[in-house]
Amino acid sequence: MLDICQTLILKLETLFKIDKIEFPNQPVFLAPMEDVTDTIFRKICKSFGADMMYTEFVSSDGLIRNVNSSLKKLNITDEERPIGIQIYGHLIDAMVEAAKIAEDAKPELIDINFGCPVKKIAKRGAGSGMMNDVPKMVQITKEIVNAVTLPVTVKTRLGYDDDNKNIVEIAERLQDVGIKAITIHGRTRSQMYKGDADWTLIGEVKNNPRMKIPVIGNGDIDSPEKAKLMFNKFGVDAIMIGRATVGRPWIFEEIKNYLINNDLKFSLSLSQKIEIVKNHLSISISEKGEKTGILLMRRHFAHYFKNLPNFRETKIRLLTSLDYSDIITILDYIEATYSC
Questions:
Q1: Which residues constitute the domain of residue 324?
Q2: Which of 179, 184, 250, 281 is deepest in the core (most CB within 10 A)?
């Protein structure tokens, strides 16, 4: 699949930059997702043409305290580039120090998470909770921009709730303190992931004459058609895809094939998907050991085969086995049973 992606990418002239990082026109980014976008999954998505990826979000407190689980998230490889390390937190000094630590890992950029809506994070004023304190959000961003030499970007939401959709103002203020791009998820913090993403305000930010930095749109892109619509209707510089990639990392190639060739005929056979799953499993075990590698795959197993009929019993076997050989047998059974 990589050769196809490379061919598609070569058809596009490089027209889009974040600072000095060059991308093909209409790039498609992999969103940072906790417990999903580890280095293993990032490599899989990269093989299908993801243009930019981010680490799972990293706690600033964890980094400055040398917490092992946080430090491990800084591990990146050359084959994943370009890549950003995303940090979150609510204390200015801790965020600045964390940004410096992240810079030492040599990513292409530092991304600040002002978008995570999870209660335990937002209630402390981190993630999208920061949208309740815009002056502090701006101050943290300014301090980080001044503390590191890498480009700094921000990922955030439309606002804290329906009565406070202030992303147009926020985007201007963050640009003014030196960020190089902004990613906007089309929901408020209080929406979490419910309802439909509203791209109208994302479009307003992009078309605001004051905005000079790239605007990346995020939320509900789960098909090539939606990807093309968001580019054409709202004029965003790039799109970012999150949940739709789980169990479908080839969505990047599907989208690129449509954007470049206007072709919706891209499809993978079940046998090809099984091959991808086996490769994913093999990498996971190679990097994490058999037990941990298999446990980490369970989230992905649940999505790779979610559309197969009468699959409940086989799914339970797949999600409960801790034996590599047994899982391969189950995957072979799936291929033999559902390929007919």
A1: 270-338
A2: 184
**Closest alpha carbon to 249 in 6, 12, 28:** 28
Burial group, residue 68, by CB count within 10 angstroms (0-12, 13-18, 19+):
exposed
> Which strand (E) or helix (H) includes residue 264?
none
Q: Does 26 share its domain with 168? A: yes
- Of 208, 234, 261, at which residue does a domain stop? 261
Is pLDDT of 67 > 50? yes
Alpha carbons 153 and 174: distance in angstroms, whole number: 9
Would you say the C-alpha torsion 187, 230, 11, 272 has a positive or negative sign?
A: positive
* Per-residue confidence (pLDDT) for residue 71, from 0 to 100: 92
pLDDT at 12: 46
Among candidate residues 261, 291, 307, the one where a domain is terminated? 261
Clarify whether 5 is annotated catalytic.
no
**CA-CA distance, 94 to 114, in Å (whole number)?**
15
Exposure of 111 by Cβ count < 10 A (0-12 exposed, 13-18 middle, 19+ buried)? buried
Are residue 289 and residue 182 in the same domain, yes or no?
A: no
Instruction: List the one residue out of 64, 63, 73 whose CA is nearest residue 42.
Output: 73
**Looking at the structure, do residues 19 and 146 belong to the same domain, yes or no?**
yes
196, two tokens: 């439909």
Kindly indicate the confidence band of residue 14, based on its pLDDT and cuts at 50, 70 and 90: low
pLDDT at 142: 98
Which of 5, 45, 116, 340 is labelled catalytic? Answer: 116
Contact status, residue 97 vs residue 63, Cβ threshold 8 Å: yes
Same domain, 76 and 192: yes
Task: Name the residue type at position 285.
Answer: I
pLDDT in tens, 121-173: 998 899 999 999 999 999 999 999 999 999 999 999 999 988 899 999 999 99
